[in-house]
Amino acid sequence: MSTSVHPAVKVSNHPLVQHNLSILRDKNTSTEQFRATMIRLGKLIFMDATVDLPTAKTIVETPITKTECKILSPNVPILIAPILRAGLILSELAIDILPSASVYHIGLYRDEETFKPVTYYNKLPSTIDYSVAQIFVLDPMLATGGSAVAAVDIIKKLGTKASNIRFVSIIAAPEGIQHLTEQHPGIQIYTGSVDERLNDKAYIVPGLGDAGDRTFGTV
Ligand code: PRP
Ligand code: URA
What we know:
This protein has one domain (2-216): Rossmann fold (3-Layer(aba) Sandwich), CATH 3.40.50. Helices cover 31% and strands 31% of the residues. The protein is built from six helices and 16 strands. α3 (88-97) links the parallel β5 and β6. It binds 1-O-pyrophosphono-5-O-phosphono-alpha-D-ribofuranose and uracil. Residues 141, 143, 203-204, 207, 210-212 line the site of uracil.
């Protein structure tokens, strides 16, 4: 259940997405409630992002008869790539939904003065065929897009096409969408909201503040 504001962006218009977003945006939401809400909301958006995963036919024998069923294609590896730190809150729910996926942690933080991403951790699984893998990059916030572009740069160097990469976020800024889609045409972005703009500290307006700090209680 989603609408598109840009050909590469799917914004979920599910009422539960809107409801849970309003809890996340509220500055009085506790860390405990913030985390639980992030997980609930993340699941709804992640379901949208997995809607076109490739499937294969199989025959299953029910207690009554044999029948043709569909399963996720066994020949297509799935990779979940959370951007640390805030992306971690989305990776647990993604693994729950896609239990056979591998996880590729990418450590990036935004320099507070330049707003440019700094890479500090890169733990990629080496057993994956990156040329066919379907990859979900997870980060609640797409602000300037610097972190997202840097993460996708790293993944594409492994041999993955942008069209096999989905960026899953909770809130996106127009500036981040433009930057990510210009640098990586073909990528799909899934989000709960496209907000108005960035402020002079490159925070999303109205946004929800610092996603990592609010998730991990380091405000
Ligand atoms: C936040 C967020 C994204 C990044 C988005 O991380 O989780 O990774 O900012 O901003 P951008 O689109 O302008 O790059 P942050 O740098 O605060 O690190 P943290 O998750 O470790 O707190
Ligand atoms: N990172 C965040 O956590 N929040 C923003 O609004 C922008 C970048």
